[in-house]
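Re: beginner question about structure tokens

> Can someone show what the tokenized structure looks like for a real chain? I only ever see the sequence side.

Sure, here's an example I had lying around. Input first:
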Amino acid sequence: MDENLLAGNRICVVLLSGIGDVVHGLPVVNALKRDAPERNITWVVQSEPAPLLQPHPSIDRVITFDRKKGLSDIRRLWRELRPLEFDLVINFNIYFKSIIPTFTARAPDKISFGRDRARDLVWLFANHRLSARPIRHTQDHFLEFLDYLAIPVEPLEWKISLTDDEREQQREFFARFDDQCVVGIVATTARHEKDWQTEHFADVATALERDFNMKVVLLGGPGLREQARARALAERTEADTEWALGDDLRRLTYLVDGCDLLIAGDTGPLHIARALETPVIGLFGHTDPRRAGPYRAFEDLVVDRFNFDAPGQPADFSRPGARDLRTSLISVDDVLEKVRLAVERLPSDRPPA
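And the corresponding structure tokens:
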């Protein structure tokens, strides 16, 4: 590492992925700020996950950029980002869209992944590149930037912040359930291959209310597929579910924070739950939980059908990165077994009946 890389305090972070990757980026900016509190950190992010960073104690400025909006958003980004002067740009992404803000941001030093991982010539727009490493959890890949900058990784912190108003709204939402334990269900992921069958989710919801006396809250975003699958779940289940889907990521965050347990596939709310230390049952079949599961937490609550043919074996990332139809191998009993395990750990002052 060039010892002068952190001589200045103005840092621009480029991370244009979805909610889960943004969560994985938070420990890096927290470590940068912890190492030197006077550092000023700007984060270029897509609009969808941007609310997760507003507010955040380690981020001083948030600039949104959505390449799909076309030339008009590129021009806006140029007007907003180009006048700023940075000492360092960190590009976490490996795809072409990240080239635009990385090139636009003015800085003498720019870091990205190397040619072995970055695609679309992304590495050409950085003068410092991370060396090749074996494939690991996404969080581990992001933490490599701290290693390169010789900044301690520990303590690993996400620091997702809720405002006083959000805390009050959270209290009002959960007060209606008295002393019931609340389980959030996120039934839809970003890709249909990762989705578990809605009828199975419905059966789990029925069992949660009937057998565990738990209140089921349906969580998710405003997408048409998300809404349709949640409605199908609600219509099929015998449980009296609470509908809480919407387009407010801040609200979703404080609802995940308030739940006693979350059940979700490989999707952003799963990683929000891990960051907030909300116990989460992860449903994995299409993707490998050792790469995309809750990082260093709740691993025994993961239902893993990606590695169905080699349970308990060391990670072998030489195999293809996705496996079709594996999610359908997850049974209702698989999930309820994890629910029983989670129930054993619930605080004694809020036990399910």
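Each token stands for a local structural state, so reading them left to right follows the chain. The mean pLDDT is 93.
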